[in-house]
Design goal:
about 325 residues; alpha/beta; Rossmann fold; 2 domains; 5-stranded parallel beta sheet; 12 helices; binds (2R)-2,3-dihydroxypropanoic acid
Length: about 325
């Protein structure tokens, strides 16, 4: 029996590619750079299933080529890169990879928060210069984390996982979300209006999906509500923050600093942002552990297998 045709837009971890080669005819050898428009168009025109990533813009024009396509398995939990209504109109199922990247992303959120407040990146760079003169009482003083208030914006799986970790730091947690989320054994949190979360928190961490409603959710007015001693952490999607407004707030020191894993126009990071001392900037590493990226690949394959066999996709978003 002929194997179904699968188009994979980017290089995935080897165990995932090995599994793919057993079950599918791969349309092209995936490469470690974003696919060109032309490559995407060809893939969408010929494949029965596609695995794509957040760097592939799947809009109505791309979908118009998809005459054989049954499923787009997005290799991410966020799926703002895909025009969902257009996919629905064409009867194409779209799936994502929830759950498996929750811990990795929550861990990275804490890595950013701690790196920022304890000046880890700066300190490490100093030691590598070979010019560190040794310990001194007033050297590179950071900010306490334990016992401070953590504010979470968006209390889905990742927001809750970040909040759970705060228990180890004895931090009160407040959150803003559309629905209230019950506390868990050993980890408690309290709902507040978004404005209150921004005004009361020492650290504000963003965990909302990017939608029309959350685009520039953190704008000039919201940033102005934050304490001058507070830090903003974003491991969700760049456009959730109005980056120009954030730049002004950081430059004017109306907030203390920011830890960013995502940017408004990835991979472009504004030079003004890069020149600031009160930021830690990561290259969208939220889910970037080998184990997680392998699990994400297998989730895509589970969804594709289900759809091509006429069964419901476990992680359908359309
Ligand atoms: C996601 O899954 O949305 C992440 O941003 C990918 O790392």
């Amino acid at each position: 029996m002929e194997r179904p045709t699968l188009y994979v837009t980017r290089l995935l971890p080897q165990p995932v590619l090995d599994a793919i080669s057993v079950q599918y005819r791969m349309l092209a050898d995936p490469t470690d750079r974003p696919a060109t428009e032309e490559e995407l168009r060809r893939g969408f025109a010929e494949a029965q299933a596609v695995i794509c990533t957040l760097t592939d813009r799947i809009d109505v024009s791309m979908l118009s080529h998809a005459t054989n396509l049954k499923i787009i398995a997005n290799y991410a939990v966020g799926y703002n890169n895909i025009d969902l209504p257009a996919a629905i109109r064409r009867g194409i199922i779209v799936t994502n990879t929830p759950d498996v990247l929750t811990d990795a992303t929550a861990d990275l959120t804490w890595a950013l928060l701690l790196a920022l407040t304890r000046r880890v990146v700066e300190g490490e760079a100093w030691v590598r210069t070979g010019r560190w003169p040794g310990w001194a009482p007033t050297q590179m003083l950071g900010t306490d984390v334990s016992g401070k208030t953590l504010g979470i914006v968006g209390m889905g799986r990742i927001g809750q996982a970040v909040a759970q970790r705060a228990a180890g730091f004895r931090m009160p947690v407040i959150y803003a979300a559309r629905h209230s989320v019950p506390s868990q054994p050993g980890a408690s949190w309290a709902w507040r209006h978004l404005d209150e979360v921004l005004a009361e928190s020492d650290f504000v961490s963003l965990h909302v999906p990017l939608t029309e409603a959350t685009h520039h959710l953190i704008d000039r007015r919201k940033l102005a509500l934050m304490k001058p001693t507070a830090f903003l952490i974003n491991t969700s999607r760049g456009p959730v923050i109005d980056e120009a407004a954030l730049l002004s707030a950081l430059e004017a020191k109306t907030i203390a600093g920011a830890g960013l894993d995502v940017y408004e126009q990835e991979p472009v990071v504004p030079a003004r942002l890069m020149s600031l001392p009160n930021v830690v900037l990561l290259p969208h590493l939220g889910s970037a552990t080998l184990e997680t990226r392998v699990r994400m690949g297998f989730i895509c394959l589970d969804n594709i297998a289900a759809v091509l066999r006429g069964r419901p996709a476990p992680n359908r978003v359309t």
